[in-house]
């Protein structure tokens, strides 16, 4: 080891350059600069810190300061500047390459993990590198905005840096996937996913976050991810507002959607008579939706629809007459409310069923 504990091989030929510059006053040529860059790359690849490498060059400069440099100190210092700058450039070039390679490995792992395409044993071994242990259950949160979110952009950097700073001892994976930002965390650590959602909303407007339920194993990560995507798709179809949707709270929707024929029959039977109303079924279905969303409180439903309470009451009576079901009757209300949910899922009456 030599100057600054950096091996001699990374300073190869430097003392000779100093002597030649002191004697001739010349600057380093292109080949000499590229050689310094190559040495900087090798130092980075070998794990030496940039400060240690620069310190080694400055130490060697002090130790080998040419005796004739008293006449040309400016030329020698200019050469030192050139050499150190070239070494640093090569070092940074190696770091950028390492980061790109790491990002590529990470993207490949995330793709394999969320699509379930890899052998589970191999996937589990790779997961350790990214802080995941499939022996425990994991939940997946997915953030989606009007614009695509990519690795390294402002949103992903802000969210990941915040999570890393706050949960330094947690096993968390944050990455972009198909224009969305994904967070994989142990299922019992709900505070991590809550913070992820909070930071995503703070980073950009109109971000919606969906959280899948916790499931065990590598396949459980895929399951939770698909649940989160399903919640986002459902929110788009049904006009749900966030800022956070939990798949566990939306289980009724996939249950209803499993038998489309039965759902269509329910909508036609319970709400079909509303098509006889002046203006069609749309306004009355919207009235029922607002009424149920307001907890069957007429004043609140009227406010949401920009109607008077009297006008709302008239619409509810009209619905009662057409369908034979009273929205205020607890026994009949369940059928109407389920049918309204089905209508939203089927986009009825905008689309025929």
UniProtKB/TrEMBL annotation:
Residues 116-233 form the CdaR GGDEF-like domain. It holds the Pfam family GGDEF_2. Residues 284-340 form the PucR C-terminal helix-turn-helix domain. PANTHER family: CARBOHYDRATE DIACID REGULATOR, DNA-BINDING TRANSCRIPTIONAL ACTIVATOR ADER. Belongs to the CdaR family. This is PucR family transcriptional regulator. It comes from Streptomyces cremeus.
């Amino acid at each position: 080891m030599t100057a600054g504990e950096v091996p001699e091989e990374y300073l190869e030929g430097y003392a000779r350059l100093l002597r030649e510059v002191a004697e001739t006053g010349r600057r380093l040529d292109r080949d000499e600069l590229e050689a310094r860059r190559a040495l900087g790359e090798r130092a980075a690849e070998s794990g030496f810190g940039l400060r240690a490498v620069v310190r080694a060059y400055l130490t060697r400069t002090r130790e080998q300061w040419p005796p004739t440099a008293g006449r040309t100190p400016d030329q020698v210092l200019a050469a030192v500047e050139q050499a150190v700058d070239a070494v640093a450039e090569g070092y940074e070039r190696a770091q950028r390459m390492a980061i790109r390679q790491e990002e590529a490995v990470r993207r490949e792992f995330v793709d394999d993990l969320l699509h379930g395409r890899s052998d589970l044993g191999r996937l589990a071994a790779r997961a350790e590198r990214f802080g995941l242990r499939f022996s425990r259950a994991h939940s997946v949160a997915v953030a989606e905005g009007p614009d695509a979110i990519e690795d390294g952009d402002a949103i992903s950097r802000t969210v990941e840096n915040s999570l890393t700073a706050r949960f330094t001892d947690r096993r968390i994976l944050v990455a972009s996937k198909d224009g969305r930002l994904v967070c994989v965390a142990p299922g019992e650590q709900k505070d991590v996913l809550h913070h992820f959602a909070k930071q995503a909303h703070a980073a950009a407007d109109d971000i919606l976050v969906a959280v899948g339920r916790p499931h065990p194993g590598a396949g459980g990560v895929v399951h939770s991810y698909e649940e989160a995507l399903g919640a986002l798709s459902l929110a788009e179809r049904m006009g749900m507002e966030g800022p956070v949707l939990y798949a566990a709270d939306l289980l009724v929707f996939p249950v209803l959607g499993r038998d489309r024929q039965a759902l269509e029959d329910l909508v036609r039977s319970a709400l079909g008579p509303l098509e006889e109303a002046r203006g069609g079924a749309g306004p009355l279905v919207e009235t029922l939706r607002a009424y149920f969303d307001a907890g069957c409180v007429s004043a609140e439903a009227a406010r949401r629809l920009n109607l008077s309470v009297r006008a709302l009451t008239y619409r509810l009576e009209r619905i009662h007459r057409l369908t034979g079901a009273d929205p205020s009757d607890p026994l009949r209300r369940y059928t109407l409310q389920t049918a309204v949910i089905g209508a939203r899922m089927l986009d009825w009456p905008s689309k025929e069923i």
